[in-house]
Design brief:
- The complex is a heterodimer of chains A (259) and B (260).
- Helix content of chain A is 35%, strand content 11%.
- Chain A has 259 residues and is an alpha+beta fold.
- Chain A folds into two domains: 108 residues, Ubiquitin-like (UB roll) (Roll), CATH 3.10.20; 136 residues, Alpha-helical ferredoxin (Fumarate Reductase Iron-sulfur Protein, Chain B, domain 2, Orthogonal Bundle).
- In chain A, strand 6 and strand 7 form a beta hairpin.
- Chain A is elongated and about 70 Å long.
- Chain B has eleven helices and two strands.
- In chain B, a hairpin with a 5-residue loop joins strand 1 and strand 2.
- Chain B starts with 7 loop residues before the first helix and ends with a helix.
- The chains are: A alpha+beta (259), B mainly alpha (260).
- The structure holds protoporphyrin IX containing FE and FE2/S2 (inorganic) cluster.
- The site of FE2/S2 (inorganic) cluster (FES) has 13 residues of chain A, from loops.
- Protoporphyrin IX containing FE (HEM) binds next to helix 1, helix 3, helix 5 and helix 8 of chain B.
């Protein structure tokens, strides 16, 4: 198939950047979106120019680094990640606009690659448990109701790709943060650090400069793995609970953030 | 550790709680206004009792706090969100339907705010607010028991029989309806309802509340605009001072006789 690509090019974090158009003549509709970009890069390199920088790693929808905004939708017209998108989702002769994630908390490093380390810092602020959960066979020692497992899994599936931020009109990372908070809080092992986790993660989220949630649910609509917005409601509930609890602990002269 | 709303989520929870409390005010205000359909006597007496009760100052203070915290936190989260993506997309394709309703929240909110200011100036602080000037302004009403009170019913009729005023009022109410259509279910979500069934119910309730309050509050201006009740009499009363008392006294005493 023949395609016209309009791609964001930006030399470095400081460069203003701009769109550049490219033409591709012979792309198989069975190739993946990233293979199509590989072909384009080969063509660009053959003509002696610098190839387009975009991220990819697993190319099987697991690692979450390959996010691109394709024709105005994070990860494009499919339901999964960009690497799981195939050219048969497009028509011969299409013009495709490719942009990086846009959020001030995700600075563009080069072309289509953004710095998502803000997510790492949110996780570092509380997305972990400090109890020893034993070895693999100990996993079945503690029985957990199926409905809790499902709730935990809803959050645990998050691959941290950042499509929620890219799609949100407010560039909010509430879905990402909520997925982590929710995943841990519904499991007994995660209850220990329940209060400080949610408070620290929510504060870090704001410190990184992500926006607030307007409950539009665009994040859920683009999430490649199907994390639901009910995690956000659970995070809000947890946050309110932790704040009130800490407040009463403090007024009683107790330590903050103790269980 | 304090309860200071230092994060956007804390602020949003305040927006949601104050927003839900505003529904309480809207309900009370609407039910009271329904007396406009009953007549001048019950409406004026109701309004008089409401405004002459010393507790009104406490109620007004609470309303100012509720609306104030809604507006302040609403603006804060909106500004935080605006600042989070300074450079936007070239192409944008959203999957959520009716996203313009969500995006218009700050604008519909601003229209409601301006409307409230205008509404308070034109009714509460309008003609007849000053007790000593009531006769001159033609805003005095004598109850059947002979008590002279403010003729707010007349003020409502004078305002709403003016089509420009009524249409402006209805437009403000439609803005409020659009705000509510997203607001109620959003608040339910913000306040932590994770259950899908309850959430879907809240979504339907949100639309229902939007329709009820928009149609409900619009019914007053539309009713008076269309029916144009006894404008002639009202204009006469406005011009001739001494007639104010006479006009109100005569039917009052006749009705008193009728009752007895
Ligand atoms: C006085 C003028 C008003 C202003 C300036 C205003 C402004 C706002 C803003 C900016 C938001 C936040 C939207 C977002 O998160 O993106 C909001 C949400 C909301 N508003 Fe208002 N509003 C006003 C009046 C009202 C009224 C009359 C009601 C009640 C019927 C109401 C109920 C709500 C509710 C329930 C929310 C949802 C909170 C949430 O997202 O969880 N507001 N408002
Ligand atoms: S490359 Fe790993 S998810 Fe796409």
């Amino acid at each position: 198939m023949k395609l016209t690509l309009k791609i964001w090019r930006q030399k470095n974090a400081k460069d203003a950047g701009g769109f550049k158009s490219y033409k591709l003549d012979d792309i198989s509709e069975h190739s993946s979106f990233l293979e199509m970009l590989d072909t384009l890069n080969q063509q660009i390199m053959n003509s002696g120019d610098e190839p387009i920088v975009f991220e990819s790693d697993c190319r099987e929808g697991i690692c979450g680094v390959c996010g691109l905004v394709i024709n105005g939708v994070p990860h494009g017209p499919g339901r999964g990640t960009t690497c799981q998108l195939h050219m048969r989702s497009f028509k011969d002769g299409d013009e495709i606009t490719i942009e990086p994630w846009r959020a001030d908390a995700f600075p563009i490093m080069k072309d289509l690659m953004v710095d998502r380390s803000a997510f790492d810092r949110i996780i570092q602020s509380g997305g972990y448990i400090s109890v020893n959960t034993g070895s693999a066979r100990d996993a079945n020692e503690k029985l957990i109701p199926q409905k809790d497992i499902e709730k935990a899994f809803d959050g645990a599936q998050c691959i941290g790709c950042g499509a929620c931020v890219a799609a949100c009109k407010n560039a909010s990372a509430n879905l990402f943060t909520a997925a982590k908070v929710s995943h841990l809080v519904v499991l007994p092992q995660g209850k220990v650090e329940r209060s400080e986790r949610v408070i620290n993660m929510v504060e870090q989220h704001d410190k990184e400069g992500f926006g607030s949630c307007s409950n539009q649910t665009e994040c859920e609509a683009v999430c490649p793995v199907g994390v639901t917005v009910s995690n956000i409601s659970r995070m809000n509930r947890e946050y309110a609970r932790a704040k009130v609890k800490n407040f009463f602990n403090a007024t009683r002269g107790g330590d903050k953030c103790k269980k | 550790m304090s309860l200071t709303p230092n994060t956007n989520i804390a602020k949003k929870i305040l927006t949601a709680v104050s927003g839900l409390l505003i529904f309480g005010f809207l309900t009370g205000h609407f039910l009271g206004n329904l007396l406009l359909f009953v007549g001048a006597e019950p409406f004026n007496i109701y309004a008089h009792q409401l405004t002459s009760n010393p507790l009104i100052y406490l109620a007004e203070l609470i309303l100012v706090i509720i609306f104030g915290s809604h507006i302040v936190t609403g603006i804060q989260v909106t500004l935080a969100s605006r600042g989070a993506r300074k450079k936007g997309y070239e192409v944008r394709n959203e999957r959520t339907p009716k996203s313009w309703i969500v995006k218009s929240m700050p604008y519909t909110g601003t229209i409601i705010f301006l409307f409230i200011i205008f509404h308070i100036i034109s009714f509460k602080f309008g003609p007849g607010f000053d007790e000593s000037a009531r006769i001159n302004e033609g805003m005095l009403y004598l109850t059947m028991e002979g008590e002279p009170i403010r003729d707010l019913y007349k003020l409502v009729v004078v305002r709403f029989t003016n089509p420009a005023y009524s249409i402006f009022y209805v437009i403000a109410m439609i803005s409020m309806g659009i705000h509510i259509a997203h607001a109620f279910q959003s608040a339910i979500r913000t306040l932590g309802v994770t259950n899908k069934t309850y959430y879907q119910l809240a979504q339907k309730a949100s639309i229902a509340l939007a329709v009820v309050f928009t149609v409900g509050f619009s019914s007053f201006p539309l009713y008076f605009m269309v029916s144009q009740p006894e404008l002639a009499v009202i204009e006469e009363v406005e011009t001739v001072e001494s007639e104010v008392i006479e006009m109100n006294e005569v039917p009052a005493s006749i009705e008193e006789l009728d009752v007895k």
